[in-house]
């Protein structure tokens, strides 16, 4: 019988040290995980360490206002118990907004 391709070439000088290194690194990653530090969290988003309290509170306040607007818009598009849920979310967001605004005014009182 005639083969379509020749025998694969032999690799007597093939270096397996790279394969061993990768295998040991993978095993070490799963069997000996390193403890999580705040700088190396597995979260998708992180907050820069150099941001001040005022910047964080201002951004939180703006985000809460946006979410509240989205929930209020949604509440007037739907009816029934789903509307009540959306309005409840709006009211909870307003409460959190008041807390953030108070924290912002305490952290940096207006002159």
DSSP, total strands: 0
* Overall SS class: mainly alpha
Query: How many distinct helices?
Result: 3
**What gap, in angstroms, lies between the N and C termini?**
95 Å
Unreliable spans: none
- Rounded Rg: 29 Å
Roughly what is the average pLDDT, rounded to an integer?
81
Topology:
Blueprint: H1 17-31, H2 53-75, H3 81-107
Helix pairs in contact: 2-3
Describe what you observe in this structure.
The protein has a domain at about 50-105. The protein has three helices and no strands. The chain is elongated. The longest helix has 27 residues, at about 80-105. It has about 110 residues and is mainly α. Helix content is about 60%, strand content about 0%. The N and C termini lie far apart (about 95 Å). Helix 2 (about 55-75) packs antiparallel against helix 3 (about 80-105). The protein has helices spanning about 15-30, 55-75, 80-105.
List keywords for this structure.
single chain; 111 residues; 3 helices; 59% helix
Write a compact overview of the structure shown.
The protein has helices spanning 17-31, 53-75, 81-107.
């Amino acid at each position: 019988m005639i083969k379509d391709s020749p025998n694969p070439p032999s690799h007597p000088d093939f270096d397996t040290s790279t394969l061993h290194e990768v295998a040991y690194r993978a095993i070490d990653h799963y069997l000996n995980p390193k403890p999580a530090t705040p700088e190396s969290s597995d979260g998708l988003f992180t907050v820069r360490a150099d941001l001040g309290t005022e910047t964080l509170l201002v951004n939180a306040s703006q985000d809460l206002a946006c979410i509240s607007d989205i929930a209020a818009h949604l509440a007037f598009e739907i009816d029934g118990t789903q509307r009540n849920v959306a309005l409840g979310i709006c009211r909870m967001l307003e409460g959190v907004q008041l807390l953030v605004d108070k924290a912002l005014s305490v952290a940096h009182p207006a002159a």
